[in-house]
């Protein structure tokens, strides 16, 4: 008698599959840069990726907390770069 590995299609299994397909791609290099000379203190970066960006309490300029964030933070960092009104943020990836 053959034994087959059949999993029931339960909500738990479906959720696992969904999480696997949404897993962010890991980049070999993902290096964040923040240019305080360009920053105008709008704060979009801290709203989108608070684990990676902060603002200094005096001028409100960006403070880079983590230039090499975890893969699960890459999407939020890309959003922060895209939404920064002054072009102060960039990511080197590859
Ligand atoms: S979003 Fe851009 S301009 Fe705004 S605080 Fe962050 S780096 Fe500065």
From TrEMBL:
Bias type Polar residues, positions: 1-18
Keyword Isomerase found: no
Region (Disordered): 1-26
Coiled coil (UniProt feature): none
Cofactor(s) in the UniProt record: [3Fe-4S] cluster
Domain Divergent 4Fe-4S mono-cluster per the UniProt entry, residue ranges: 30-91
Keywords of the record: 3Fe-4S, Electron transport, Iron, Iron-sulfur, Metal-binding, Transport
Alphabetical list of InterPro entries matching this protein: 3Fe4S_ferredoxin (IPR001080), Divergent_4Fe-4S_mono-cluster (IPR010693), Fe-S_cluster_ET (IPR051269)
Entry function: Ferredoxins are iron-sulfur proteins that transfer electrons in a wide variety of metabolic reactions.
Protein name: Ferredoxin
Organism: Catenulispora yoronensis
